[in-house]
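Final report, Chapter 2: Outcomes

The project's central promise was a pipeline that accepts a single protein chain and returns its three-dimensional structure in a standardized token representation, suitable for archiving and comparison. That pipeline is now operational. To close this chapter, we reproduce one record exactly as it appears in the project archive, with the input sequence first and the structure output second.
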Amino acid sequence: MSRHHVWSHLTPTQLENLADFGIDPQGSARGPGRAEAVAAAEREGHEWVRFDEAQISEVAAFGVEREVAQGEILFSAGDDDPSFFLVLEGEVEIFGLSDGEQVAIAMHSAGHFLGELSLLLGQRPFISAVAASAGRVLVTDPVAFRHLMSTKPEISDVIFREFVARRGIVNAGPGSGAVRIIGTRYSSESMALRSFVNHSQVPHVWIDLDEVDDAATYLTSVGATAHDVPIVITATALLRGATPADLAEVLGVAHHVAPGEISDLVVVGSGPAGLAASIVGAAEGLGTWGYDRANVGGQAGASSRIENYVGFPNGVSGDDLIASAAIQASRLGAVLSAPNDVVGLRVENGYRVVVLADGSEIAARAVIIATGARYRRLDVENLPEFEGAGVYYSTTELEVRVCEEGDTIVIGGGNSAGQAALYLATRARNVTLVIRRGNLTDTMSHYLIERIEADPRIQVRFNTEVTALRGSGHLQGATLSDRKSGESQEVACAGVFCFIGAVAATAWLGDTLLLDDSGFILVDRSLPDSVTESPLFGGREPFPFETSVPGVFAAGDVRSGSLKRVASAVGEGTNAVRSVFDYMATIT
């Protein structure tokens, strides 16, 4: 989608209305002045990092000095590949969008550097920078900036910490309106967009049309109608019927492969195993590209709380763990792209060729498959009607808020279901945990069972299934059927959360790799002798995590026989990279 003609359809009146909502189609900066900028920073209680002379000297080796005029725009929200700026003389004002209005976020002076986390994550900027006075700046282009971040660890650490803090400031208020998502709470399409921006750490605001007094007038003011929902508005674009892929294009995170492009390592999937592989691969100097069909995070990113992962005595939310890992991977140089679906894999001319959904292809020296497993869908006739509108497969804040203070059902007997039930019990009126089995001890960790049994807000229904759903526009009730007695009961519920079974995410592979009877990937010692003794392996044993195709590895939940825990997935992703190096040593 072109980013240069998105406003051309609007009338002059509609353009004026956009200005009232804080959107400038011409891309010029406007907003409060210096006093407001200083006050904004003071309100946040943040002291902007100022480089000393020695630090400025180190950064200067990577950039070029130039003069700037008062009022000159150094970069605008939505720009492609912005540079890293360090102020040498004068002042630079930073603007963001909040509640539809341009607001001043900061006033930077000599020694301050510009930008925030988008520079590290490959996102187009969500803020704008304008010279408040004539002065001089040091400009470091994107390539040189990445080199700076990888070769000057002391400088890199300072910039990284400051960028993370600044993203928090933007998310907390000033600048949070850089992306506006307009939709309805029970729309699966709206939920997909909101999930994408949350997992991608994108500053945004959510506008629920069900809570807008005059939704039609509001939509008209932005040049849209109800048929266009969900809608996304950024500093440079208005997207009708928006999808996560559309938004990824506008944000600059949709990685497009150039013809003939070659990578050292492609990682398919970005859950714990995939992110661990991307982090270690990039850290060890491999050109590493990671792809995911939906969002960064996998099932772990959908977990409300993970309590058995080393280093987090109080537990950690899946969102927080995945967000930190994604930033770490990007900081080390890995390119993460989501949503970007991989649909095929083949061997050609000595490379492993990964085929993307848009038809583009990337040749890689090695591939790690970490696509994980997906929860099974309910075997209920009208399920599609309620997916994203009451039936969910994760318990992040987005899903839980929809059914807050209502009756909820959690389906499943594993740790994910247990954590979901406990989290929902703190927000919902009551929780019914529905399990096909007659006990929890076979499938759930002991500490979770103890907590569930001690929580009066959670009712456990053994030997039970959800056999029907009902509602108008969104889920309002379900039918619970006892598998032993055959009796059924209709219950009211605002949300059903499914954590049942595990379906290997391997359908896209076709017959490229050997799979077990359940569709999980066979590796190393689990491969039959007919494969390991074939000429493909040249007389050697498969390396750990290596599949039936040399140079292709599998790690995490997608691997046959995996433990299906976050900690083990991280370990597998890490060790798979070790095997990648062993494999590469045999072909170079």
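Archive annotation: The CA atoms of residues 244 and 555 lie 26 Å apart.
This record, like all others produced under the grant, will remain available to the consortium after the project formally closes.
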